[in-house]
Amino acid sequence: xxxxxxxxxxxxxxxxxxxxxxxxxxxxxxxxxxxxxxxxxxxxxxxxxxxxxxxxxxxxxxxxxxxxxxxxx
Length: 73
Prior knowledge:
Elements: H1 6-39, H2 45-57, H3 59-70
Keywords: Membrane, Transmembrane, Transmembrane helix
Transmembrane segments: 7-28, 34-57
InterPro entries: TAXIMIN_1/2 (IPR055283)
């Protein structure tokens, strides 16, 4: 079903580039959150911050899939 949507992939690339930049930011936040949660395990907010960063890392793939599915076949 996704084979007939190559144009959606190409049009979605600029949005994926922005999402890629956000995912790199998420990777930095994840590393910092992981280090801080290891240093102070009593602060649960750092674990939530690391989970948010992981979702930012997965963002480019989600954006491309969402954009491809928005374009009719």
